[in-house]
Amino acid sequence: xxxxxxxxxxxxxxxxxxxxxxxxxxxxxxxxxxxxxxxxxxxxxxxxxxxxxxxxxxxxxxxxxxxxxxxxxxxxxxxxxxxxxxxxxxxxxxxxxxxxxxxxxxxxxxxxxxxxxxxxxxxxxxxxxxxxxxxxxxxxxxxxxxxxxxxxxxxxxxxxxxxxxxxxxxxxxxxxxxxxxxxxxxxxxxxxxxxxxxxxxxxxxxxxxxxxxxxxxxxxxxxxxxxxxxxxxxxxxxxxxxxxxxxxxxxxxxxxxxxxxxxxxxxxxxxxxxxxxxxxxxxxxxxxxxxxxxxxxxxxxxxxxxxxxxxxxxxxxxxxxxxxxxxxxxxxxxxxxxxxxxxxxxxxxxxxxxxxxxxxxxxxxxxxxxxxxxxxxxxxxxxxxxxxxxxxxxxxxxxxxxxxxxxxxxxxxxxxxxxxxxxxxxxxxxxxxxxxxxxxxxxxxxxxxxxxxxxxxxxxxxxxxxxxxxxxxxxxxxxxxxxxxxxxxxxx
Length: 492
Fold this sequence. Notes:
Elements: H1 3-17, E1 36-39, H2 46-57, E2 60-65, H3 71-75, E3 78-85, E4 88-95, H4 99-111, E5 116-121, H5 131-140, E6 142-143, E7 146-147, E8 152-158, H6 172-175, E9 179-182, H7 187-197, H8 201-209, E10 216-220, E11 223-227, H9 229-244, H10 251-255, H11 261-280, H12 283-288, H13 293-303, H14 308-350, H15 356-372, H16 380-396, H17 401-433, H18 437-448, H19 452-455, H20 463-466, H21 468-491
Helix pairs in contact: 1-2, 8-14, 13-17, 14-16, 14-17, 14-18, 15-16, 17-18
């Protein structure tokens, strides 16, 4: 299955394994709660989906890489203790708390999570001395004499043998204690994720025209070449910052992330073409509505005869420009909403005699704890700090509630302007390319943006065009027609 399907299965399993009956007992007994084992190539997002699943279920996540663990760190160190049996005292061997189990309790104390996922990465790389211990853990949730806390489920991940020389094949006894989920790289699923994460439009447009370059692992003449989803996403992040600082990139830069010379060189050439199109098609001016009517018509005419790859680049450029506007609105909306929520919390506590400085100090401490335990979502730390700065201005400065009302009205006007702009750009894409794949890609890109729902943008007249199954059927039919034409041509 693809990584999105794997995430949904993890979420369902967490909810099933943590379900309780009327007496607070687990509906599924612990020995029957088979751990999930994700097996798939590196870089497809196995660790990331664990984080997303934990967030969706509202539980904690503690991740461990098993390659560096020994039997002593997993089970605990032996120590001598004195016991009395039938009136006689004996010296016996006991074990200290397992490092992994102890870390779960520490995590629970710091974060307040009573339920969570213990994620063991690279589990099929453990040493032979740990194998019996892992069997015990997988079935009974215990390391030696220490049990995984109630409410915590076990999930694991590993790479197939061809991707990691350290991998040991799990025996039948181990496989009979887990639920194996085979994960495969799927560009269609990753594309939706990438657009929501703000992956660079050059990466997305390139992979749309070269989906076979999304994931590749080759080994020839003792040399391994590989390109992974992780590599594309990391390249996107650094490339965006290079652009912001005006720094140059080239083939060697791309090769640092794409460990296949052919793909790195091809993408470097493509990126040069991508950059040249920004000015050629005046995308920034079009997105902001700064083109005159005659200039807009001329641009439409020039786009009608461009090749498919140039159309794809144009749509991705335009989506990036529109996405920046939507992101700015969403960021501002979340900020105002969060500030109002925190302000109401403060006012509700004023009756208990809590002053502003004490309230802000508690918030700063809570933010620090969440950061130390990896509980903050991307951008959340900046949002909370911005809210605190604004609260100080409201509580200590000359500002009042009328300023808050003005900001709310400004947000409404911004929303109306963006909706008007999106409708204008949709009409432009339709007029330039017709009701074809380019329009569907544009609408799907807007729909998949993380802030689209808050804006309420909708073009119901294109619902059929957006139907993915309909699109797939249309593409398959087109391929079939072309194949029939080629077969006919061969016969002639």
